[in-house]
UniProtKB/TrEMBL annotation, chain A:
Domain PPIase FKBP-type: residue ranges: 45-133, 162-248
Cellular localisation: Cytoplasm; Nucleus
Pfam families (UniProt xref): FKBP_C (PF00254), TPR_1 (PF00515), TPR_8 (PF13181)
UniProt TPR repeat ranges: 314-347, 348-381
UniProt keywords, alphabetically: Acetylation, Chaperone, Cytoplasm, Isomerase, Nucleus, Phosphoprotein, Repeat, Rotamase, TPR repeat
Name of the protein in question: peptidylprolyl isomerase
Lineage summary: Eukaryota, Metazoa, Chordata, Craniata, Vertebrata
Region (Disordered): 1-24, 417-446
Broadest EC class assigned to this enzyme: isomerase
Domain of life: Eukaryota
Reactions listed under catalytic activity: [protein]-peptidylproline (omega=180) = [protein]-peptidylproline (omega=0)
UniProtKB/TrEMBL annotation, chain B:
Descriptive protein name: Glomulin, FKBP associated protein a
Compositional bias segments (type: Basic and acidic residues): 524-533
GO MF annotations in UniProt: ubiquitin-protein transferase inhibitor activity
Region Disordered: start-end pairs: 524-550
Superkingdom, taxonomy of origin: Eukaryota
Length: 446, 590
C-alpha cells in the first residue's frame, strides 16, 4: 500500500511504507528513516529500549519519550504494548530509526486511550531502537539467568514449585551438548535428576508450549565445583534449550466449591506430610500453602465444616512454620505462627515455634517472652525451659553490645549522663563502684 | 523573679569554660527562660540571648527555649510576637542544627488537631533552614522531618465538597501546599545528583526519603481525598498536590509506568520479600493508578503505547486491594478504576487465559461482596454496572468459564439470577444467524444448563430465599423451549429435557406444593389468631433483627401481608412452571 492508495485528508504525514502485518492487511506500515547498524533482530521476550514520538494524523503530538527525557523499555512480543509495536519493533535493528503507521485495529481501536487519543485514531510513531537484551529472570536481577524466547508459549500461568512438568531439555557447554533428555518431574525435584538450580528457576518463568534458550551463570549452574558426571569444569556458564511441553495446573480455588476445597485440602495435607517426612520441606510447604489459599477466605462455612476448615488451616500454618524453620527462613515461619495463633490463641506449638523463629531473627527478648508463655501454659514443656536459658544468655551478650553502640551514638548525652551519675555516686557511696565502672566505660567508648 | 533567675544563670554560665555547663544550669536556663517568655518578658530574654558574651551559652542551651516561643507565636499574642520572632531567628542562626531539628519536630508533634495547620505552616520554614544547614548528611533527618509532618497532616479531616475544599477550614489544603514548598530544595538536590551521576544510584539516601514521602502521601491523605475535576473546581490545591507528587516521583527517577506495572512485572511472588513492599506499598500504588487512569493526573508523563489488556492486568492488583476494603472512599475508587480500565478494552476481547490469574478471580468475588453487602446504595448499583461491564469485555469462551465459576462460588441467589440472565443473553445472541459459537450452543452449553437448571436441595430448597435464581432459571428454560424449535435443537435442550424435568421441574413442583400448603396454613392460623385475640392484636408477634439492630416489631397486619405476598410469589412461579410444562408436553405433536 502506498501513499496514493489511501485517502489522505489534509494530514501532514504521508501514509507510506512497507506493510509488515502477518495478515498483510495494511494495518502497520513501516518506513525506515535511518538504517540500523546491528545485524541481529530482537527476539520475543527481549527487553528493548527505545525513544519515540507519537502523533495523530492531524499532526498533533500526543506522546514523546524524548520530551520526558527517559527511554521507554518493554518486553517485546508479550502484549505489553499495542499490537503495532510488538510487530514493528521486532523488525528493527539497533540504531535504526523508523516510522510506524498504525491503523486503530493495531493501536487503541474504537475505545481510544483517554485523555490523549480519541476513538478510532490512526497513530504515527517515529521510533529509534537503542538496545535490547535477553530477559533476566533472576529475582536479584543479577544477570545470572538470561532467556531468549524461540517460540512463545500460551496463557498467563507458569509452573509453580511443586508443579509437575513435561520438558525437553538440551544442555550445552562451549558448544558441546552434555545433556539431552525428555523429562517429567515435579519442580523442586531437579537436583535428583542432575539439573542445576538455574534450570528449575527457568522453568518457573515459562509458559505452556514455550521453547527458550537460557544462558546460566555458574552461580545458578554447577557453581565452583563443576559437575563431573557431565564433565563440566568449575565456574562454567551453561546454555540450556528448554521446551515446556506441558505442566499440570493446580485447580484454582475458584473452580472448586466449599466441599471440594475441604476434600482437596485433606488430600493435599497428606501429600505435604509425606514430603515433610522425606525431608523435602520446600515441596511440603507448597502443599500446605495450597490449603491456606483455598480456605483462608472461605467465609460461607458453618457448623462442622467450619470447624474442619479451621483445623485444616491451623495444621497448615503450624506445618508451614515448621517447614520454614527447617529451611532457615524465619520471616515466613513467624508469619505462619502469628496466623496459627489467630486461629488458636494459646497454641503450644505455635508459641514455641514463634519463639524459635524469633530466636533465629536474634529477637531474643521476644523469643524469651514466647517460651515463657509456653512454660506458663504448659509447665511440662522442658524444651521451652532450656530455650529460655539460651535466650537469656544471648540477651546479656546483646545488651553489652548495644551499650557500646549507643554510647557512640549519643556521645553528648552519654557524657552528660556520666556527669550526673558521677554526682549521684558521690551521694550514694554504696553503689559507687558499679556506677563508676559504667561511667568510665561510656566515657572511653565515647 | 524568673527574669532574675534567668539573667543569674546566664551570668554564672559566662564564667564556665569550654561549654561544660552543669545539668542544673541546663534545667534552670530552661525553666526560667520558659517562665520569662510566658510572662511576657520576651524583650528582655531577646536582649540577653543576642548579647555577644552569651553566644556559647545560647548555642548549647538555646534550643530549650523553642517550646515557649512557639507557644507564643501560635497564640498570636500581639505584644510579644516581634520579640519571639526575633528570638527564633536568632536561635536558628546560632544553635546546632541537630538540636534545633529535634526541638522543632517536638513542637510539630505537640500540636493538637486544632493547631496542626498553624504549627506546620509556622515551623516548615525554620525546619527547612535547619535541614539545609545539615549539608550532605541530612538524608535521615529530612526523612524524620517528613514522616513527622505527614503523620500530623494525615490527622486533618479531608474536605468532601467543593466548598469545603475552597474554605479549607481544617487547613489540609494549606498544609499540602506548604509541604510542596518545603520539599522543593531537597527534590532539586536529588535531581542534580541524578544529572551529575548520569543515571541514579538506588542508594541515594535523600532520594529514598523523598520516595518514601511521595508513597506515604499517595496513601495518606490522597487515597482518602476525592479530587474534583477541573471543570467542577478550577483551582484545587489538593489536585495540585497530587500532580506535584507524581511529577516529583518521575523527576527523582521513578518512572510512572514502572511503578504501575511493578507487581505484574516482578517475576513472581517472593515470600517474605519485605523491602519491596515497604518501598512501594501497594496501597500507594493503587492511589497512583487511580490518579492516572480516573483523574488523568500526570497522564502526559505516562506512555501512550501500552496495551489496554496489559494495563488491565496491572490495575487488577490495585482494584483487588481497593475492593477488599470496606471504607466507602476505597470501594468507590476501586470501582472507578475498574470501570475506567475496562472501558479501554474492546468488547468481547479478553481471552480465557486471563481467568487463570488470581486477581481475575478475587476481583469478581470482592465485587459480589460490594453488590450484596455494601451499605451504600449507589456503590451497590455502580458495582453491578461494573460487574456487567467486566462480563461484556470477556470473549465467548471466557464468558462461559466465568459464568460456570460464578455459579459455583457466588453463593448468593441474586447474583446467580443475574448470571443466569446473562447466560440467556449469550444464548440469544448465539442463536442469531451468523453469530453461532461452540460455547453457548450444543455440547458445551449442556453442562452449563444442567448447572443452572437444578434445585440444590431438591424439593426442600427454600424457594423464597432462592427466588431470584429460580425465576431466572424458569425464564431461561421457557425462552429456550420457545426460541429453539424441537426439530432444530441447536442448544440441545430438547434432547436433555427429560433430565431437566427430573432434576429441576419435578422437585420444583413438589416444593411449590409443599410451600404453598405451608404458607396457606400459616395464613389461616394467623387470621384466626387475630380474630380471637381481638383488641390485643396490636401486640407484636415476632421481632426481626438485621445486623444486630432490631427492626420495628412486626404487627399481625404486617405478618398477614408477608404471608400473602409469599403466596403471590409462589403463584407467579407456578404460572411460569405451568407454561413450561405445557410446552414440554406439546413436544413431538408438532
Amino acid at each position: 500500500m502506498t501513499a496514493e492508495e489511501v485517502a489522505n485528508d489534509g494530514n501532514s504525514i504521508p501514509m507510506e511504507g512497507e506493510d509488515i502485518t502477518p495478515k498483510k492487511d495494511g494495518g502497520v506500515l513501516k518506513l525506515v528513516k535511518k538504517e540500523g547498524t546491528g545485524t541481529e533482530l530482537p527476539m520475543t521476550g527481549d527487553k528493548v529500549f527505545v525513544h519515540y514520538v507519537g502523533t495523530l494524523l492531524d499532526g498533533t503530538q500526543f506522546d514523546s519519550s524524548r520530551d520526558r527525557g527517559e527511554k521507554f523499555s518493554f518486553e517485546l512480543g508479550k502484549g505489553q504494548v499495542i499490537k503495532a509495536w510488538d510487530i514493528g519493533v521486532a523488525t528493527m535493528r539497533i540504531g535504526e530509526i523508523c516510522q510506524l503507521f498504525c491503523k486503530p485495529e493495531y493501536a487503541y481501536g474504537a475505545a481510544g486511550s483517554p485523555p490523549k487519543i480519541p476513538p478510532n485514531s490512526t497513530l504515527i510513531f517515529q521510533v529509534e531502537l537503542f538496545e535490547f537484551h535477553g530477559e533476566d529472570i533472576t529475582d536479584e536481577e543479577d544477570g545470572g539467568i538470561v532467556r531468549r524466547i524461540i517460540t512463545k508459549g500460551e496463557g498467563y500461568t507458569k509452573p509453580n514449585e511443586g508443579a509437575s512438568v513435561d520438558v525437553h531439555l538440551e544442555g550445552q557447554y562451549e558448544g558441546r551438548v552434555f545433556d539431552d533428555r525428555d523429562l517429567k518431574f515435579e519442580v523442586g525435584d531437579g537436583e535428583n535428576l542432575d539439573l542445576p538450580p538455574g534450570v528449575e528457576k527457568a522453568l518457573q518463568a515459562m509458559e505452556q508450549g514455550e521453547e527458550s534458550l537460557f544462558t546460566i551463570k555458574p552461580k545458578y549452574g554447577f557453581g565452583n565445583t563443576g559437575y563431573a558426571k557431565f564433565n563440566i569444569p568449575p565456574g562454567a556458564t551453561l546454555q540450556y534449550k528448554i521446551k515446556l511441553t506441558a505442566f499440570e495446573k493446580a485447580k484454582e480455588s475458584w473452580e472448586m466449591n466449599t466441599c471440594e476445597k475441604l476434600e482437596q485440602s485433606t488430600i493435599v495435607k497428606e501429600k505435604g506430610t509425606q514430603y515433610f517426612k522425606d525431608g523435602k520441606y520446600k515441596q511440603a510447604a507448597v502443599q500446605y500453602k495450597r490449603i491456606v489459599s483455598w480456605l483462608e477466605h472461605e467465609s460461607s462455612l458453618q457448623g462442622e465444616d467450619e470447624e474442619k476448615a479451621k483445623a485444616l488451616r491451623l495444621a497448615a500454618h503450624l506445618n508451614l512454620s515448621m517447614c520454614y524453620l527447617k529451611l532457615h527462613d524465619p520471616n515466613p515461619a513467624l508469619e505462619n505462627c502469628d496466623k496459627a495463633l489467630e486461629l488458636s490463641a494459646n497454641n503450644e506449638k505455635a508459641l514455641f515455634r514463634r519463639g524459635e523463629a524469633l530466636f533465629v531473627m536474634k529477637e531474643f527478648e521476644r523469643a524469651k517472652d514466647d517460651f515463657q508463655r509456653v512454660i506458663q501454659l504448659y509447665p511440662s514443656n522442658k524444651a521451652a525451659k532450656s530455650q529460655v536459658v539460651l535466650c537469656q544468655k544471648h540477651i546479656k551478650e546483646q545488651h553489652e553490645k548495644d551499650k557500646r553502640l549507643y554510647a557512640n551514638m549519643f556521645q553528648k548525652f552519654a557524657e552528660r549522663d556520666a556527669k550526673k551519675e558521677a554526682e549521684q555516686a558521690k551521694k550514694e557511696p554504696d553503689s559507687a563502684m558499679e556506677i563508676e565502672e559504667n561511667g568510665a566505660q561510656e566515657q572511653t567508648a565515647a | 523573679m524568673a527574669l532574675e533567675q534567668f539573667s543569674d544563670v546566664v551570668q554564672r554560665c559566662q564564667a564556665v569554660q569550654d561549654e561544660k555547663f552543669s545539668p542544673a544550669d541546663f534545667d534552670l536556663f530552661q525553666t526560667a527562660g520558659k517562665t520569662c517568655i510566658e510572662q511576657g518578658d520576651s524583650a528582655q530574654v531577646l536582649s540577653i540571648i543576642v548579647d555577644e558574651r552569651n553566644k556559647d551559652i545560647v548555642r548549647c542551651m538555646g534550643w530549650n527555649l523553642l517550646e515557649p516561643i512557639v507557644k507564643v507565636l501560635l497564640s498570636k499574642e500581639d505584644r510579644n510576637l516581634p520579640h519571639c520572632h526575633a528570638i527564633l531567628t536568632h536561635l536558628l542562626q546560632t544553635c546546632s542544627p541537630k538540636e534545633l531539628l529535634v526541638g522543632l519536630l517536638e513542637q510539630v508533634e505537640e500540636a493538637d488537631s486544632d493547631t496542626i495547620p498553624e504549627a506546620i505552616i509556622l515551623l516548615l520554614k525554620p525546619l527547612q533552614t535547619v535541614l539545609l544547614k545539615l549539608g550532605v548528611r541530612k538524608a535521615s533527618s529530612v526523612g524524620m522531618a517528613l514522616s513527622t509532618l505527614l503523620a500530623q497532616v494525615a490527622q486533618l479531616p479531608v474536605p468532601l465538597s467543593k466548598e469545603q475544599e475552597e474554605d479549607d477550614v481544617f487547613g489540609l489544603c494549606r498544609c499540602c501546599t506548604e509541604l510542596l514548598l518545603f520539599i522543593r530544595p531537597f527534590v532539586e538536590e536529588v535531581k542534580e545528583n541524578l544529572n551529575n551521576n548520569r543515571g541514579f544510584s538506588r542508594n541515594d539516601e535523600l532520594r529514598g526519603e523523598i520516595l518514601k514521602f511521595c508513597m506515604k502521601s499517595l496513601s495518606e491523605p490522597l487515597l482518602e481525598v476525592q479530587l474534583k475535576d477541573p471543570d467542577a473546581l478550577e483551582k484545587s490545591p489538593l489536585r495540585d498536590f497530587a500532580s506535584e507528587i507524581l511529577v516529583i516521583l518521575s523527576s527523582i527517577g521513578e518512572s510512572l509506568p514502572d511503578l504501575l506495572c511493578h507487581s505484574v512485572l516482578r517475576k513472581r511472588e517472593v515470600p517474605g520479600f519485605m523491602e519491596e513492599e515497604v518501598r512501594y506499598p501497594k496501597e500507594s500504588l493503587a492511589s497512583l493508578a487511580h490518579l492516572l487512569f480516573v483523574k488523568h493526573i500526570a497522564m502526559e508523563r505516562f506512555p501512550a503505547v501500552l496495551s489496554p489488556v496489559f494495563l488491565l492486568q496491572c490495575n487488577m492488583e490495585y482494584i483487588e486491594l481497593l475492593l477488599s476494603r470496606t471504607e466507602e472512599s476505597r470501594v468507590q475508587k476501586g470501582l472507578e478504576l475498574y470501570e475506567k480500565t475496562l472501558v479501554r478494552v474492546e468488547d468481547g476481547s479478553l481471552p480465557v487465559d486471563l481467568l487463570d490469574l488470581k486477581t481475575f478471580f478475587s476481583v469478581p468475588q470482592n465485587l459480589v461482596k460490594v453488590m450484596t453487602l455494601c451499605p451504600v446504595q449507589n456503590l451497590r448499583t455502580k458495582g453491578l454496572s461494573v460487574f456487567q461491564l467486566s462480563i461484556d469485555k470477556f470473549n465467548t469462551e471466557a464468558k462461559y468459564k466465568f459464568f460456570r465459576c460464578m455459579l459455583r462460588t457466588s453463593e448468593h441467589a441474586g447474583v446467580e439470577g443475574y448470571i443466569i440472565k446473562n447466560i440467556k443473553t449469550q444464548i440469544d445472541s448465539a442463536l442469531r444467524p451468523g453469530y453461532g459459537n461452540e460455547w453457548f450452543l450444543g455440547k458445551h452449553l449442556l453442562p452449563l444448563l444442567h448447572q443452572v437448571l437444578c434445585l440444590p436441595q431438591g424439593p426442600e430448597t427454600d424457594l423464597l430465599h432462592n427466588l431470584d435464581r429460580i425465576m431466572e432459571s424458569l425464564n431461561l428454560l421457557r425462552y429456550l423451549l420457545i426460541r429453539d424449535k424441537e426439530w432444530q435443537n441447536e442448544t440441545g435442550v430438547w434432547s436433555e429435557l427429560y433430565r431437566m424435568e427430573e432434576n429441576f421441574l419435578k422437585p420444583l413442583r413438589t416444593g411449590l406444593n409443599m410451600s404453598k400448603a405451608h404458607y396457606e396454613a400459616e395464613l389461616k392460623s394467623a387470621k384466626e389468631n387475630k380474630r380471637s385475640s381481638g383488641t390485643e392484636a396490636k401486640a407484636p408477634t415476632c421481632t426481626v433483627t438485621v445486623g444486630n439492630e432490631s427492626l420495628p416489631n412486626m404487627t399481625p397486619e404486617m405478618q398477614l401481608q408477608v404471608l400473602q405476598s409469599a403466596l403471590y410469589t409462589f403463584d407467579l412461579m407456578e404460572s411460569v412452571l405451568a407454561r413450561i410444562e405445557e410446552i414440554a408436553e406439546a413436544r413431538g405433536r408438532v
